Amino acid sequence: AKDDASAGNALAMSRVNLHNTVDDLRKRLRAIVDETAAIKRNVKPARATGQQASGIDYKGLLALFSPLVLDAAVYGVTRFNLMDKATLINVAVANVPGPRVPAYIAGARIRSQLPMGPCADGIALNITVASTDELLIFGFHGCARAIRDKELLVEGARRAFQSLKRSARQRREP
Q: Is pTM beyond 0.70 here?
């Protein structure tokens, strides 16, 4: 419905502990889920007016960041090498839920997609997870200086995902 605040996407920036020191996968995921759920409870989704419950006009705020302003800011940061010595964010993670039913373009079924999040100076790694009615797809984009062993990153992600699938199967079994 038009006034349903639960529909649609929401964007929020937040610092989240990934609980890397917790060895047990289920406990680690539970800790992350609990922490992000608490964050989501405190974020009020933007309504059709572009204002959140806090009264902030997010559409107006975004208007401050016109392409010309963003271009000028990026030029300044790049021109003066402001990000050469700084990594502001070690990892950014985004979840982009896709349709839960088959989707088509010009009559052809969409079988895959390439999830891609923002790549910017100061972000060492961006992981974007997208879904279709059949697939969960991961996109990794990162800084070559920060990620020196890309194959190790991919292999670690592959192993972690296999472990996650095993854990999900065990949970479903009686």
A: no
Instruction: Supply the pLDDT for residue 94.
Output: 83
Task: Identify the pLDDT of residue 31.
Answer: 92
What integer pLDDT is reported at residue 1 of this predicted model?
43
Task: Please give the biggest Cα pair distance in the chain.
Answer: 60
DSSP string, the chain: -TT-TTSS-----------TT--SHHHHHHHHHHHHHHHHHHPPPP-TTSB-TT--BHHHHHHTT-HHHHHHHHHHHHHTTTTTT--SBS-EEEEE---SS--EETTEEP----------TTBSEEEEEEE-SS-EEEEEEE-TTT-S-HHHHHHHHHHHHHHHHHHHHHHH--
Mean pLDDT across the stretch 83-98?
Answer: 75
